[in-house]
Amino acid sequence: MIHVVLADDQTLVRAGFRSILDGEPDITVLAEAANGLEAVRMTRELRPDVVLMDIRMPELDGLEATRRIAAENGASKVLILTTFDLDEYVYDALRSGASGFLVKDTEPTELIHAVRVVARGDALIAPAITRRLIAEFAGRGPRPTAGLRLDGLTTREREVMALVAGGLSNDEIAAQLVLSPATAKTHVSRIMSKVGVRDRAQLVVLAYESGMVRPGWLHIDGEDH
Q1: Does domain 2-129 fall into CATH 3.40.50.300?
Q2: Reduced to 3 DSSP states, what percent helix, strand and coil does the chain have, rounded to the nearest 5?
Q3: How far is residue 185's CA from residue 122's CA, in Å, rounded to a whole number?
Q4: β-pairing, 213-214 with 217-220?
Q5: Residues forming a β-bridge with 3
Q6: Which of 104, 119, 144, 160 measures 20 to 30 Å from 46, CA to CA?
Q7: pLDDT per residue as tens digits for the range 117-130
Q8: CB burial class (10 A; 0-12, 13-18, 19+) of residue 72?
Q9: Domain limits of the chain?
């Protein structure tokens, strides 16, 4: 069973989300938060698998709430769901520790799928919000230690990480590098452990911030792809 906490300052929105998610046999909503502070407290107490988080809320916004949840409780994944699909929010949410980002006009079936994807530890970014935006905003801030976190990676792991940053799934990485899907998945899990990130979304951000991947191309051991 996937346990969910809903965080949105609009009662009707929360009720709509609860109706959609509670209708699924493998998903249950544990609690509802009307602001970011409540979301952090409920996540601390209930330890849900997924927190469905609005960005603009009173007392504490969704981005800061996400940062606190990511710092306190690595087991709970945050899925940002908002009416504001501005580029800055995408990158800020992912840097804050979110595992996914959807806008509120998402179809119910897509919301359900997103919760399941994030619950199993994968990253989810709405199709309309591409990694090109992450690349654009990743280059704007200081990144003094990002590259140091990659020093322990092998050549193969760097190749795999660059392909993850390019948006490839484990199956696509396996085909690209002539590996089994299981081996590709093992590489991705080992890379996340080595560089200290929770999921693929943070791995993508780190790849851009470190300079491993640049806008428009993949950089793997000195070769352009």
Answers
A1: no
A2: 50, 15, 35
A3: 11
A4: antiparallel
A5: 28
A6: 104
A7: 888 876 666 544 54
A8: exposed
A9: 2-129, 137-224
